[in-house]
Amino acid sequence: MTGPAKAGTLLLAAVIVVACAPPAAGKPHAPRNGLAYHGVSDTGDAADLFRFADQVGAHPAVLQDFFHWRVPLTTGALYRWGITDTRGVLSLSTATGAGVEMITPQQIAEGRDDRYILRLARTIAESGQTVYIRLMAEMNGHWNPYSAFNADGSARHNGHSTHWFKRAWRRFALIVRGGSRQRINERLVRMGLPRILRARSQNDPVYAGGPEGIPLPVPERLPEPRVAMMWVPQSFGSPNIAGNQPPDYWPGGRFVDWVGIDIYSKFAGAFDEGKAFFRRYDRWPFVIGEYGPWDNDQSGSFTNALLRWAERHKRVKMVIYYRGVDPDNAYNLQHYPGAQRVLRRHLDKRRWDEYAPGVRALTDPPAPANPERVAPPAPRRGIG
């Protein structure tokens, strides 16, 4: 084949490849020019962020909230992110702080509650905020309901396998990132999953909304909020068995925007595994989703080692101090004077950007009428 015929065939082939290509990965919305964000967990009271800022001598760039499935951001998180001029980190679990499971990974994958994902995306898009979604974190830790294994190493059945975890993650990422409803549905169907809202076709009447609970319509083009998906396992499983390691929960690079781990002074021995994990997943910006001097870093040696390591590795773009859900428990900085001195010294460096671009220009949202405080479980494990 030569000439115009060959050129036409090549052009047609290129068009087919583009049309069949999966949606591009999301954007990490990471700081640029060698900078990184330091943040802190939310207590439900914005004043506590400013107290923490006084302790460390620097404004936290991000504020992490621990929410469970079906809790809207309008119950307080958006308000606190707005009035503190921070970007939000949403650590989203499938269970309440008391351990009541709201939904299984299989149910998420099968579209049993797409309405929550759609609402979440719409709320973030309307707010103008940038939100990092730390979905089902520490998934290879048995204490989390979405883990595939129990503490004794037995498999957790009824929709909790790694197979369903990965499919749930992919569905969530596709919907929350938004874009063409048709393209998202085509991608879901190719993965063997139901369309959005389990629709029978692209033009199913379910997308028009209706009187049942007055659900909002699902437009042909979904909102495209500024979100980034954070995949944060432990660097090794608990239980530490085959099938419960980070790669077993890996949903695929197109569905992940950040990778990271959690680490505490109490489990500092796991830091070597964390460094190996950092080297293994080297294509993504890196986050320390939770860290702290709990419960023995009086001198600040662990905190100093962690921050020095983060500063030497430019791919580390975010580090978040965990203090529980009140400013006085054992995770808080005032109990570790050495660590406090270390943090003041490190966070005074140019490496740590105190304000993400655009946050101070956003309009503060109204305070919620009934703010909800969602308590995360306390660390109970060998984190790494």
Average per-residue pLDDT, rounded, comes to 91
Number of domains: 1
Level-2 CATH architecture: Alpha-Beta Barrel
Summarize the amount of helix as a percent range: 25-40%
**Biggest sheet architecture:** 8 strands, parallel, barrel
Task: Tell me the fraction of residues in β-strands, as a range.
Answer: 5-15%
Strand segment tally: 10
CATH class designation: Alpha Beta
Radius of gyration: 22 Å
How far apart are the termini? Answer: 58 Å
Structural class: alpha/beta
* CATH topology tier name: TIM Barrel
Strand order of the largest sheet: 1-2-3-4-7-8-9-10
Contiguous low-pLDDT stretches (5 residues minimum) are 1-24
Order of helices and strands: HEHEHEHHEHEHEEEHEHEH
Report on the architecture of this protein:
It is a single chain. By secondary structure, this protein is an alpha/beta fold. The protein has a single domain, classed as Glycosidases (TIM Barrel). Helices cover 29% and strands 14% of the residues. It has helices spanning 3-20, 46-56, 77-83, 105-109, 114-127, 162-177, 181-190, 271-280, 301-312, 337-346; strands spanning 37-41, 62-68, 87-93, 130-135, 179-180, 221-222, 226-231, 258-264, 286-292, 316-321. It has an eight-stranded parallel β-barrel, surrounded by five helices. A two-stranded antiparallel ribbon has the order 5-6. Helix 2 (46-56) links the parallel strand 1 and strand 2 (62-68). Helix 5 packs parallel to helix 6 and helix 9 (301-312) packs parallel to helix 10. It is globular, with a radius of gyration of 22 Å.
